Amino acid sequence: MAGITDAEDNMETATRTPSGAPRYTRRLSDKILLAFHHACDQGDYEIAEELLRILETMLTRRTVPPDANRRKSIESLVAAHERLWHLRHPEKKFS
Questions:
Q1: Helices of type H across 1-95
Q2: What is the pLDDT of residue 39?
């Protein structure tokens, strides 16, 4: 995933249910992943690393019922770790 686009950054994240309660259109883990990419785009790697720790904690704890998107979420977490590693080690080039 590249950085956050202006459309994503300005996207309304909550809508109202008929009862008036907010219904969020993105999972908290998705918002944290977006914040991670935003931190990377700004070169704030310490914050990016902390956000990954939080995301990892969220994804590795057991949920009931199990999250149907867990595998995709774990793959996104791995890709985020890889991005951060490559940003911190730009001299390491792989063919």
A1: 6-10, 28-41, 45-60, 70-88
A2: 98
